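Researcher: Next sequence.
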Amino acid sequence: MLMNIVEIILILVNGLLFGFTVYLFFLIVTGLRKQEREYELVAPQKRFLVLVAAHNEEAVIAGIVDNLVNKMKYPKNLYDVYVIADNCTDKTAAITLAGGAKVVEHTSKPGEPKGKPHGIRYALAQLDKQLVDYDLVAFFDADNLVDPEFFNEMNSQFMHDDKIKVSQGYLDSKNPDDNYISLSYAGVYYQTNRYFQAAKTRLGLSASLGGTGFVVDRGTLQEIGWTADSLTEDLEFQIQCQLKGYKIAWNHFTFIFDEKPTGFRQSVVQRLRWTRGHWTVKKRYFTKLLKGFLANRLENGKRNWSLLDSALYLIFPAVGVASFSVFFFNVIVFDINPFSFLPMLLVMYLLSVLTLAHALKTDTRKKPNTNPFLVILATYWYTCTYIFICFAGILTYKKNEWVRTEHKSSTAIENLIP
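Model: Next structure:
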């Protein structure tokens, strides 16, 4: 009797996981199509407030300050750059001022929570009276380097469609060749950009915010406010936007180069923070997303499928853990030979290589100095270790201490975009 119940549960879980697999495969097929601008490049008009989050980033802050102040192909009178020196005890603020940007210094009071979302909230409060002078607010991290055409592309996208209130730029890698860890991150991002972000927006769904390189309409930001305080404040703000009826747009034609971790412990700590934050957001908003999907409709009378899609995205950590667990239960309960999965795994690997090669050829500007076969092996390491991190993150999601990721890559934007 007990075995029958276990078998029924496994069959149901297998069915749900198969549904997720079909959905992801459909996204891959959609992502294979050529990406084309849905807007024309127009003359600069939008005014940008640029916020750069930083905590003890003296090793890299000069790079993005010089990048934003001196290398952007956009009229300087149409944007202002502020670095949020959040609880800094180094020379971040001084280097920023010397480079020509402005600084908002934030020091947490005793007992106050610390971390990026709280620094952003403080900066927006300090700049509240000045926000009316801007049309759009752009968010970056201190370790980033930014495509010189970023403001031009975002200006044109927002000018093209006044329904666009939030847009995420293409997240590229600043240091894919440092080692296998940074290469694994880069490989995951290359595939995510095309076969998740671009594919979903092509289907009319909302893209996901990636923590940096995104732009928000100033009025929308003031309407929603910055109350996101989880360890994944970007995901939380994304959900808040969607619940207000705003879809996250995707811009495949402007790049942000993000520094990826190079140390194993550093990588684990960062992804553990992501998973904890992800699960916190799931706890807060999963039910609200489902209720919004069932109760509300868009102006055209159709359901807002982005709400359901984001609700499913919030349970991805659990799906990863379940996929790993169910594999072993299937082998034990149904007496399946584990080696029978080898042909399927080989096909999946070759498919991964082909899709990655396609993304490398058509999208990324900083291509790694290796072949797609090795990049995929690195991404498999990333995925396999992430399963255990997801399990730990779900169990410990109430631990919400922000842990800084060290950055040290000091390359310049011209080394990434010739």
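Model: The chain is about 50% helix and 10% strand. Strands lie at 48-54, 79-86, 102-106, 136-141, 145-146, 166-173, 214-217, 248-258.
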